Automatic annotation (TrEMBL):
Any matching Pfam family: AAT
Comp. bias (Polar residues): 1-13
Ranges where the record places region Disordered: 1-20
Protein name: Peptidase C45
All copies of domain Peptidase C45 hydrolase, residue ranges: 159-341
Listed NCBIfam families: C45_proenzyme (NF040521)
Length: 354
């Protein structure tokens, strides 16, 4: 089992978006429908969701006009309104506005060894009814920079890597400063980092330039540096690796100042269990073999930390979580290795190199 892939032939934002929307029309419509169901079950009013989508598009156009053009192009190709594609890109912000809470989510490990490239792996957990949303997308800029991203149909980026030697991992956070006044979607921040940054410092500057309404952490990795950039309406913090080169992140803030406003961990403290699991498996997570690193993430609830999640089908869809992907970055090659599903399904043969 592998994720679908798409390679853009266009380099201009609107044309690239229109090609993407045209070729992936069915997947984008399905993803939008899935999020519409999720918002409804979580308590979102459809009319208000449209208002939030329009506001996210306005904020995006002011902060990154080219990305708003690309969203408009996707909408034109997919036969949708631009606000509908903006809703997909702003799903983190809309869920924060609805005040939706869940206890699944992602775990990330980055290790900078004394010799050799960074060793990374993350699980990506999301709602099981959206398991058909992910895809792998490659596009090129006029500058020659190539970006490869694991994202969702209609979303401009998520986890990814560029030929400028920079990659990103992605985890959701929750903070008491999160607000219903929609800001720049955090997925667009990840996109601009992949498109424009070549260093941790440049990535942090991009994050600081955006006015956001929801929280997330984007862990940025280059061949010699790494940092988790924690983003919230209350501010941005940059968390470096420890002296041993180890940088771990789950779904709670590590910065002392931002942690004072922690929401996710106070409501769903399983994030601390997952962090303790990662900390106890640093030796395996530090190894050169991607397969071994993924297997080090293997841990199931209720007997252990739920790093590898499986949905409880007795729950409503907004409370059903599944590890939909396991992903590592290959910085020297400018590629990702992607496994469809959780660590418990990993074998040497299940990795998709993209």
């Amino acid at each position: 089992m592998t994720f679908p892939t798409f390679k853009s032939s266009q380099t201009q934002p609107r044309a690239r978006g229109k090609e993407f929307g045209t070729q992936l029309r069915k997947q984008i419509a399905g993803n939008l429908a899935g999020y519409t169901d999720l918002f409804t079950v979580a308590g979102g009013d459809p009319a208000q969701v449209r208002v939030w989508g329009e506001r996210a598009l306005e904020r995006s156009a002011a902060w990154a006009p080219a990305l708003a053009e690309e969203i408009a192009g996707i909408a034109a190709g997919a036969g949708l309104e631009p606000w509908q594609v903006a809703v997909v890109n702003a799903r983190t912000e809309i869920l924060a506005a609805i005040d939706a809470v869940g206890h699944g989510e992602c775990s990330t490990s980055v290790v900078l060894p004394e010799a050799g490239p960074p060793r990374t792996v993350q699980t990506w957990d999301w709602h099981d009814h959206l398991r058909d949303a992910p895809l792998l997308w490659e596009y090129e800029h006029d500058s020659g920079r190539v970006v490869r991203t694991f994202t969702e149909a209609g979303a401009l980026a998520k986890i990814g890597i560029s030929t400028a030697g920079l990659g990103v991992h992605f985890n959701i956070l929750r903070h008491e400063s999160d607000t219903a006044e929609l800001g720049v979607p955090v997925h667009l921040i990840a996109r601009r980092i992949l498109d424009e940054a070549a260093t941790v410092e440049e990535a942090a500057d991009i994050a600081r330039s955006a006015t956001v309404s929801a929280s997330t952490v984007i862990t940025v990795v280059t061949e010699s540096r790494a940092a988790s950039i924690e983003i919230s309406p209350a501010g941005v913090a940059v968390i470096p690796p420890g002296p041993d080169g180890v940088l771990l992140h789950c779904n709670h803030f590590l910065d002392a100042g931002l942690a004072a406003g922690e929401r996710h961990a106070t409501e769903r403290p399983g994030t601390y269990d997952r962090m303790r699991h990662l900390e106890s498996h640093v030796a395996e997570l530090s190894g050169p073999d991607q397969n071994a690193r993924a297997l080090a993430m293997l841990s199931h609830a209720p007997d252990d930390a739920p790093v590898c999640a499986h949905p409880d089908l007795t729950q409503p869809l907004n409370q059903r979580w599944e590890t939909l992907a396991t992903i590592g970055l290959d910085l020297p090659a400018g590629r990702m290795r992607v496994h469809q599903g959780g660590p418990c399904q990993v074998t040497e043969a299940t990795w998709q190199v993209f």
